[in-house]
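Dear colleague,

Following up on yesterday's call, I've attached the two folding results inline so they're easy to grep. Please treat them as preliminary; we haven't cross-checked anything against experimental data yet. The first protein's sequence and structure tokens come first.
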Amino acid sequence: MSPSQRFQQVNLRREFLRSVGQGMLVAGLGFSTAFDLGLSPALGDEDAQPINFGSSEALVRLMQDTTAEQLLPTLNDKLNAGTKLRELVAAAALANARTFGGEDYIGFHTMMALVPSFQMSQRLPSAEQAMPVFKVLYRNSTRIQEHGGHASEKMHHIAVASESNSSPNGQQLLELVRSKNLAAAEQLFAQIVNSAPTQPDHAFNELLFTVQDHTEVHRIALPYRAWDLIDIVGVENAHTMLRQSVRYCVKAESPNYTQHCKGGRNILPKLIDDYKLLSQPLGTSPVEDSWILSISRQLFSTTPTGAAELVAAALSEGIDPSAVAEAISLAANQLVLRDAGRPEKQTSAGKPVGSVHGDSIGVHASDSANAWRNMAAVSNQRNTIACLILAGHQVAYDRTSRGGDFLNWEPYPTPAHQQRIDTNAPKKLLAMAESAIRNNDQAAACAAIAKYGQLGHAENGVFNLLLRFAISEDGALHAEKYFQTVADDFANTRKTLRWRHILGLARVTASEYGQKAPGYQQAKELLGV
């Protein structure tokens, strides 16, 4: 049986899922606080039939039932016996989805780190390739065990009802999510998937109507990372990956959440209509570096509404969407480079005063812009336009509404920082950067890497250095995602401007150093590296 046939058969067998506890337990706390504190009820039905992943089921169950300390030795034995690293990532993704269903803060952050960790592994020698993946799998197992393993699964089978909608679509899904009707939203999304079971891009495009209803980092990054995972878990599991976003969005919906993001919700249809963006094909006009810099600065300095309109105007003029995305990512990067650091009132374990890693404004903004950029690249015309307009809106919103005086803060490295660099030798510059990272000196790390880039040295030297720390350090749930965000944005930004992204990574790396990742030492010993 082919993957597409299995996928269709599985969907036809799925049991109808009825929802309980559809509201936020503490609505007044708002969406992110409730997620972080775990104060929201589970969305699901304990009587529903479990999902079975066929030939992958045994490995998925192993991921759910094995303690973190026992997991890595077991998986190392499997690698030595011929199991592929890619198979471990796939099983971990399916175990995570089945356990958490997009509901758990640490759970969905861990899911979003899986593809980045696998991409990081491809940069390493063969003997070390399991290191970044093992780090995330350890985190995955720890969180699954805290939730009771497979006995506490949140996501179950769902079947298409016998009297199904003949033409289910994303607008209908959005209305059900807004009304917090999980059972109906899950049923409709299953119908959407089932209408084109071998074409997950159809379901993805319909899902984006709901994703685009709010500009909030997790709502945006979750479907992008789930989409990336489909290539690893197989098209037959696309529904399992993507429906996590449906559940996340239903759970997040609340008056406070709507108030937080209503600007983007209201302006998107207006701009699409005002600029007649669906009446002409997307443009392909290239732009000069000066255009990218100018639009990036305007996006960074204007209001959210002004930024959204800048993007809409550029698209209406026939500018290549990839160029617009390039400018948005560079604007988000400024939020990393200009951040004054975490104030005392926002500190927590692993995130001290002055730090810029983890859920900082800049890291969140860059991850969001990268997700919008990549979703725009694989979507239909309507969603490409919508993703980019909202990306522009969000980067300006993050600057103006999340706190900080970014327009008046000077970006790293300042001229004073750069004057302290007294060598042009590439090895010495990398050594200076490493020393700065180990001393949590964000400014010196940026300055050394800036000089390295200005002299035209190969970027591989920097990425190899920063990769080591992205693996060894905890990173407050964001090390893998942000490393890959920077690697991706660097690769898709013109040569004259792309080093700005690496400077952001150098700064964040220096900020996060000193908090070793759980499981890192065990993984090193097992792999002998």
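Below is the second protein, in the same order (sequence, then structure):
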Amino acid sequence: MTQLVASEFLALQRLYHWESTTPQRVALTQPMGGGALKDFTWAEVADQVRRMAAHLQAQGWEPGSKVAILSKNCAWWMMSDLAIWMAGYVSVPLYPTLAAETVRQILTHSEAKACFIGKLDGWEGMKPGVPEGLPCISHALSPADAVGAYPRWDDICARTQPLAGQPVRASDELATLIYTSGTTGLPKGVMHTFGNFAWGFAAAIERVPMHQSDRMLSYLPLAHVVERVLVEHGWLRTGMHIFFADSLDTFAADMQRARPTIFFSVPRLWVKFQHGVHHKLPPAKLKLLLSIPLVGGLIRKKVLTALGLDQCRMAAGGAAPMPVPLLQWYRHLGLPINEGYGMTENLAVSHLTVPGQNQQGSVGPAYNGVDVRIAPENGEILMRSPALMLGYYKAPEQTAETFTSDGWLRTGDKGRIDERGCLHVTGRVKDLFKTSKGKYVAPAPIEDKLVMHDDVEACVVTGANLGQPLGIVMLSPDSLGKVSQAAGRAEVEASLAAHMASINATLDPHEQMQCVVVVTTPWTVDNGVVTPTFKVKRNRIEELYGAHYERWETGGKTIIWHND
């Protein structure tokens, strides 16, 4: 599809716009540890970007060379990205929680010429994945041994004159490789252009107006497509103020500092916020208080203020399905959540519920300029737009498999479009499984219900070739502490059994869970069970627990405890 993008809306041109029109306005606020903060004005951002771009350009790499960024979100992450682009290169962001093997695979596959090493919690585990001899640059908040081993950002900027003029990159030039999070195998490098980003954000801002006066907290990985588009390119397009989170331990304080007016989170974190509220105000009591005139308004304000969301005018969720009961709970609290749908391959610019309209259960209509259809043969969602990827880097066969012969992207998701034009995502094309009774089961809708239990952090429903499906749940950290005592364990077990029974009552007989298995080992990025955006890897679940399925299903117990 033809891209119609005004050059003034491309990433570098936006930087030059704010550099010249609002040089003294604060653009970024970075925690420095211990409660200290560092503000960067647009003039300071542009100056450091120009100096680093001059340094990168001086290395003499061919135009279009790849330069990687391995860091948690911080001001230097965004400045590194801009410096790479200004120097004429292509950025390759890496999730800051990857295993060494995956770090090496991405750096090698992308042919990265260098890598920025930034703020990281697990650098010791990742360092072996950096190929020997690869030039690296350390950010201001890099791990101590990285600061000692590699040239420092501040030192390079201090001795390098800023790149002059306004170097530009064409709309059709490759801007970045975004490596997928690997739920279905090894990460693939998705190629996106500068024009893709400019068009994609223009489509998004039509649905959700964003302004210079807005504030956002950047805490989900900038290596992920949603944070990249919404935060980085939202910042460049609108000039809004971006705050960064310091750590998990300080997240509540980070939220209070930023008071975001626009806030995006993945379902797992929205559930954690809900569980935190329920920990202080049990569901029944909260429901009662919210139903009382005047008192309900005070409670809503108090809860949202405690979450740091009292000034949030636009809340959104995505990256995985949002359970309808969760959406209803937040709507009742006075914070309606708009659910979005997209994927790395379409720059996450596909669908979003319309603010102010109750479209719960769907992901809303397509953005303007996005075409969508349902494949008649298998119900797969197909889409196309000017934000579609160029393809997978160095993988023409995989690219060809991902598109239909007439250029539509195969999303891999099943869905339907209702009479309002809203899309309902009903599961994955390949996630359907058949029981030994010959009946197909779609796990996603059942999982949406199972995860709503206050003790459940994440879950999977599985059961290929079994008589009945079974649920596998991971408990929240608070609940894991509770079940260490016999009384707490009995309480959780009884509650989960009742929860399973209530869910089964809503399902067809062939969909009903035979049992729920409670695992006591957390599912983490480090042990390979979840992606950096908290999606559970089904193939990894099968590897870990598949040998037990038949025994669990035929054991006759409703709740089964599995200790790894």
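For the second protein, one point worth flagging: The chain has three domains: 14-168+210-241, 267-310+312-428, 433-562.

Best wishes,
A.L.
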